[in-house]
Design a protein that fits this description.
13 strands, Double Stranded RNA Binding Domain, 3 domains, D-Maltodextrin-Binding Protein, domain 2, hydroxymethylbilane synthase activity, porphyrin biosynthesis, globular, Porphobilinogen_deaminase_C_sf, EC 2.5.1.61, alpha/beta, 25% strand, binds ligand PBG
Amino acid sequence: MRREIVVGTRESRLALWQANWVVENLKEANPAYHFRIVGMRTQGDNILDVALAKIGDKGIFTKELELAMLRGDIDLAVHSMKDLPTELPEGLCVGAVCCREYPGDVLITKYGKSLDALPRGALIGTSSLRRCAQLLGYRSDLKMVDLRGNINTRLRKLDEDGLDATVLAYAGVKRMGWENRITQMIPFDICLPAVGQGSIGVEVRRDSEEVLRLVSRIDHTESRCAIQAERALLKKLEGGCQVPVGALGTVDNSRLMLEGLVARLDGKQVVRSSMAGGMGEAEKLGERLAEKLLEMGAGDILQEMRQEKRIYE
Ligand SMILES: NCc1[nH]cc(CCC(=O)O)c1CC(=O)O
């Protein structure tokens, strides 16, 4: 009998697409195994009416899956690397970082315009502090409107709520088959992606040697190194999704290049820099770039954000 591996995922259409994609790749690499997908709701799927930045809790899209894995109900969990907190619960680890899709953000407007062509004061729907800060840094006249929900909901609200545009991750838009709605690929010099954006990760128990081994076959070394560096940077900045941090690691000829930024929410200050190193020193590179950003003034921005957060509460 073929051994069955139970794969946990959220139940959104994007999450299910990603879990199916991971399972297809796992099957091809491990033909002796059988895989079964189990969908679960997470806190992040239940709380839809509060801005993500105000919930402020790391791991709202991952915790239920992690608990199921620790209980032994599932053998592995599939996540968007972007939603996976930098610190994992005791006993769990990232078993594979899959080959990254194009990591950037895209603009979707109603009238087929680019950022430069939007009218003054155009309304942009996004609930990402990172997108908000960087877009305001580029065009301070834009008006940011909170827009949450999955990709399909956001596209529908764009049409219904009188917004001019929204900004989404290319990866999710592509996976959901909405590429035809993209009106501009936003260049990285305007908007650096979220840490891990575009890559699908597999979380496993540290002690399940068998699962670790079969999952390691779908790991993509260059994507893993790039994202390791980005995650080390975020961890050092103590970011989480509630702080405007952007980062992008790229590998070229075994050299790892890391760009990172911390921006003020109003976009009036953007601290941005880059560093290069060997692929074997991804974490160190991320930490060093974080230190450099902190010295360049990112520390003051983060401090200010933490104080503002206390006012909300
Ligand atoms: N925040 C939700 C989320 N988590 C991962 C993706 C896109 C897929 C990916 O990054 O791999 C998205 C949607 C978006 O930000 O537009």
